[in-house]
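To start, one record:
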Amino acid sequence: MDIANCYLDGNADAVEFCPHDSYHNVLAASTYTLQEGDQPSRCGSISLFNIDGDIGSLDLVYRMETSGIFDIKWNPPGVHDDKFLAQADADGYLRIHRLEGCCNGADGVYLKEVTSEKISNSMCLYLDWNPSATSITVGLSDGSVSIVSLLESNLEVQETWKAHDFELWTTSFDSHQPNLVYTGSDDCKFIGWDLRESPSSRMVFQNSKVHKMGVCCIAKNPHDENSLLTGSYDEYLRVWDLRSISKPVNETSICLGGGVWRVKHHPFIPGLVLAACMHNGFAIAAITGKEAKVLETYKKHDSLAYGGDWQRGEAMLGRGKKKKPLVATCSFYDRLVRIWMPENDIVL
């Protein structure tokens, strides 16, 4: 069920609901636009919206211009009071913005940059926070991965190593074992690394045979320490069993009909997954044990399906009625952000 939509000022590539209490109504959206010409440039923006699904409102409350952005992520909730939004951009910078202002109606919120660090002369393509919000892993366009610390509002590159042969599209901390970092790349490889080891011996596993095209996204299951998802240009969402970490097992795969660019686990409904499928819109899938099935698809976007997220909040209303999850999605070339609810009741 469609709730609201809005066009951005550039090509939309990421949407992220704020996970922090009292700010669940705040949605951040980022853009990346290549300005062609004699001196090409990559510009971008971050927009903040106030979302009210009950009345169908999507109100722009703040916008800032940036360099072209590939990824944004809020820091994990419950660690400390600061509400940080991290930005990975085309200029090779990692930037940290703090959400400021009152949460009443979100009308007064804005972002203030608190620190930034030049990570590389290559482009920063992806980022992920560790569970304690003290480190960020960053994937780079030259195939390298960087581990960056955030302490007392200061960023510092701890180490960088060559992890892949081509663009490193995705990297993720293991939320249950944050000494483990996963990476995926255009070289079709899915690799696990142990940060406690030296760079020359920290590779825990390397799988180069399962994905038939580039690995676009990696998402550890927050509800199951032994389960992880990967998405690929080959159009498959894959479920991995990590119980033997030196040799993860691809338990099941499901074709989603388009390159699986992003996947998001629902924050509190186990097994519920939102997938951005590039040329084939968005899909909501259910992962239960060794089975995966598509519950429904959403194809109201007319361009590449790139970004999607679930709004946090309680699943039940006070009157005992179930409340459907709220979803934000964005598409690239048509610069569109949509807010919607699943058509079907979510029953797992």
Summary: The chain has two domains: 1-128, 187-315.
